[in-house]
Write a structure and sequence with these properties.
129 residues, mainly alpha, 0% strand, Di-haem_cyt_TM
Length: 129
């Protein structure tokens, strides 16, 4: 995991530093410098821990506010005539789709774990070698 974290931090550093005008500042702000060391990995792990919570929070805010009030209508026309209320239809639809997806992924992982893998990456153990 350590080697993958170094690789990930290096890729992120290269991508951010390629941005014109603000790349150097972003790298300095994100990692504290261009060197990849223990402090960088600590920040890397911190961002990886916090990012799912940030995405979940932004998703909930999106669901609470945008779908409650609708999007902006700059023309001012009445567009409520053909709309379906978000709740309960889309809430149940999203929950059903999520449960079907999780069920299919669970079945795939439990019953056919090597289906999506590369055959050349898997070499059975040979105790005679």
């Amino acid at each position: 995991w350590g080697q993958m974290s170094f690789w990930g931090a290096t890729v992120i550093t290269n991508l951010l530093s390629a941005l014109p005008y603000i790349g150097n500042t972003l790298v300095q702000w994100l990692w504290g410098g261009f060197s990849i060391d223990n402090a960088t990995l600590t920040r890397f792990f911190t961002f990886h821990f916090l990012l799912p919570f940030l995405i979940t929070g932004l998703t909930l805010i999106h669901l609470l506010f945008l779908h409650e009030t609708g999007s902006s209508n700059p023309v001012g026309l009445n567009s409520d005539m053909d709309k379906i209320p978000f709740h309960p239809y889309f809430t149940y639809k999203d929950a059903f789709g999520f449960s079907v997806l999780i069920t299919l992924l669970t079945l795939l992982a439990l019953f056919l774990p090597n289906l999506l893998g590369d055959a050349e990456n898997f070499i059975p153990a040979n105790p005679l070698v």
